[in-house]
Amino acid sequence: MDLAALEERLGYRFNHIGLLEQAVTHRSHGAVHNERLEFLGDAVLNNAVALLLYQKYARLDEGDLSRLRSNLVKQSSLAEIAESLDLQHYLRLGEGERRSGGFRRPSILADTMEAIFGAAFVDGGFEAARDLIARRFEPVIKTMDPKTLGKDSKTLLQEYLQGKGLPLPVYTVVETRGAAHNQEFEVECAIAKLDLSLRGSGRSRRAAEQSAAQLALVAAQQAVGHARRARRKPEPVQHTLALDPQPAEAQAVAKP
User: Fold this and answer.
1) Active site residue 114
2) pLDDT of residue 134
3) pTM of the complete model
4) pLDDT tens sequence across 51-72
5) Residue 180's CB: how many other CB atoms inside 10 A?
6) Any catalytic annotation for residue 2?
7) Catalytic pick among 38, 42, 97, 186
């Protein structure tokens, strides 16, 4: 397998290319696979991201830093990074795993990404792994909002409404579909003060509430924005002109 293109995408040239080959090898492929490197990479990743956040946000406390780190190193984030690198083209999978679409599976992509970080650590030390991780995460860290990142939609909606002095939303299950083992819930999120009612669906009541809250947050922000602009709009000024049909000077000239 030619891994030079992957090294180019990573921005790191391995001294021992066998480490990278092992990092992209799933356990379904054979006895030598990436799980030990994944274990190591997970620790290195958490350490490197913690350092990046510590340096970036000097005023955040331990709780907020932990929340941000957890959101950055979660499976979906790592899978997105893997996809941006076209990592699926370099995976070494067993035949059964490949036929079942394992190269698209977020868990496999995320685990392989951690294994690559672990391989870089073994190959070049912590600085090499840290720099590799920083290249993938610094652009995200620069643009993220630490006040909202990692918070779910219900929390964000509640905080937004409280900040505007508005009452909290009311969630109501309006419909449940499907068999007991495969149900889908539809939930309404109502904000009476803004005359808003949004519905979301999901495989659980909580998921449906989150979906409805996400829609309600956008709608609430728009409604509050429209109301604010309407208050700022100036009232049209009406001018009443009292026009004399004949000026005084003309009247004086007109007298005999």
Assistant:
1) yes
2) 95
3) 0.64
4) 999 999 998 899 889 988 988 8
5) 6
6) no
7) 42
